[in-house]
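Journal club prep — side note

Before the paper discussion, L.F. wants everyone to see what a predicted structure for a comparable chain looks like in token form. Sequence:
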Amino acid sequence: MKGFLKHLTMSAAAVVLIAGFTTGSAGRAYAQDSKDAGADTGSWSAPGAGSADEAATPDSNPIPLAECWDGDIEDKIDGLGGVFFFFDEVGDKITGDSDIGADWSDEAEFEGDISGKVTSKGITFHGNAGKGCHFNGSAKGDDTELGGKMTFSGKCGKFFKHVRFSISPTGCI
């Protein structure tokens, strides 16, 4: 009996020690603590902000560009002129079938094919107006008006400086 009590006492002490170690060292487990958590696991929400799990809002879709846009263009040397864009939009891309043309009263002009990207907030594009005349541009706005700027490099970069434009959709002629 003495051996049984000794064994029972040691077993009880072991259980107490194990329980003490496991409950004393264990903390709460949080998802951000997991090294194995995937990027697509979990969810979030906030008052007035919706949830990341909800479907994409229309604001995340690219601006639906009508084919023809025109408006004003202005640069440091030539002053105010007219600009015309033809957009061929496929998804979030402005394809190489798109182009731009601009002219001023002093007979300065350029034209060329463009390609680029469309987002929910605007466009970015680039192109060439002949040998030695590369340009790129960007504009912000929506499907009713875009306003932006262009930068020219190469030979024509000496003539077209600080170029800004404002355009809106028009019917193609």
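L.F.'s comment for the group: The radius of gyration is 32 Å. Keep this in mind when we get to the figures.
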